[in-house]
Amino acid sequence: MGKLTEKISLRDKLYVFENRNEAGRFLAEELITYMDSHTIVLGIPSGGVPVASEIANALHLPIDFIIVRKIQIPYNPEAGFGAVGPDGEVILNERLLGQLGLTEGEINAQIKKTREIIKRRSQLFRGGRTLPSFKDQNVIVVDDGLASGYTMLSAVTFIKKNMPNKIIVAVPTGSDRTADFILPEVDELVCLNVRGGFHFAVADAYRNWYDLTDEEVLSIIRKYF
């Protein structure tokens, strides 16, 4: 079981960050022990990129970007029933799938669509570059929040195959259920704004929230590559 680091003063509160950049700076304060260390920061596009950029800059760490994607429910694209990793590996939310009643054909079609999206986004955001080796390094994986957790689990599963020294997940906000879901898979989870309750939305942690455009994401990535 990994270690959870949170801000008790932010527990169950809404709209605690101005934007993703401010949230990234706050996360960097909690990750200060990794400054100038044998550590790499990995941002998950799109929302995790500005957060990861702030962390990498503050801690003087190298940064890269890992492409993972939720498998969308056909009639509710905002929600997913699993995720696909950079290497195409599929992780399914079996409990949710049991409730959805999707056919095998519908499931396979969504998986195929997700793999195609990952391929396109990898070309767009990574330009064909291969990911660096994580062997014996600390890896800080960053997104703008944890909802179901399957996208993050997909990233962590991929990273583990590369035998890192330590995996740290760093997110500004997350549900308490998802924190419990991710903790056994990582060495440390830094989640400043943990929230309980039946309904959870990442956006509710931010006063200024919007979906980043591809060009906005690329404008950050181009600073490093």
Walk me through the structure.
- With 225 residues, the protein is an alpha/beta fold.
- It folds into 2 domains: 3-69 and 127-221, 3-Layer(aba) Sandwich (Rossmann fold); 70-125, PRTase-like (Ybab, Chain: A).
- The protein has 7 helices and 9 strands, in the order E-H-E-H-E-E-E-E-H-H-E-H-E-H-E-H.
- The strands form 2 sheets. It has a 6-stranded parallel beta sheet with strand order 1-9-8-7-2-3, sandwiched between helices. It has a 3-stranded antiparallel beta sheet with strand order 4-5-6.
- A hairpin with a 2-residue loop joins strand 4 and strand 5.
- Helix 1 (20-30) crosses helix 2 (48-59).
Report mean pLDDT, rounded to a whole number. Answer: 95
Gross geometry: globular
Question: What name is given to the CATH topology of the largest domain?
Answer: Rossmann fold
Counted up, domains total 2
Unreliable spans are none
Overall SS class:
alpha/beta
Beta-strand fraction estimate = 15-25%
CATH architecture of the largest domain: 3-Layer(aba) Sandwich
- What's the β-strand tally? 9
Number of helices: 7
| Succession of helices and strands | EHEHEEEEHHEHEHEH
CATH class of the largest domain: Alpha Beta
Helix proportion range: 25-40%
In angstroms, what separates the terminal alpha carbons? Answer: 35 Å
Radius of gyration, taken over Cα atoms and rounded to an integer in Å: 17 Å
Strand order of the largest sheet: 1-9-8-7-2-3
Query: Biggest sheet, in brief?
Result: 6 strands, parallel
Please supply descriptive tags for the structure shown above:
225 residues, 2 domains, Ybab, Chain: A, Rossmann fold, 3-stranded antiparallel beta sheet, globular
